[in-house]
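[step 3/7] fold_predict: job queued, chain A
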Amino acid sequence: MPLIQLVIVLVVVGVILWVINSYIPMQSTIKKILNAVVVIVVILWLLSVFGIIGNITTIRIGR
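[step 4/7] structure written:
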């Protein structure tokens, strides 16, 4: 994946999260949970893109 595409994806995700946090009324605890989930997913995606954890689709939870 080219670096410019990676930066564009991160900017788009950041803008979407900012819009959700700014304009959609939610409890602060729900916003914190949403932010944490998005950050964890983005970190896992970045680790996968850079080849540190391999392909995310091969990760299995449970049996």
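[step 5/7] annotate
The longest helix spans residues 28-49.
Helices lie at 3-23, 28-49.
exit 0
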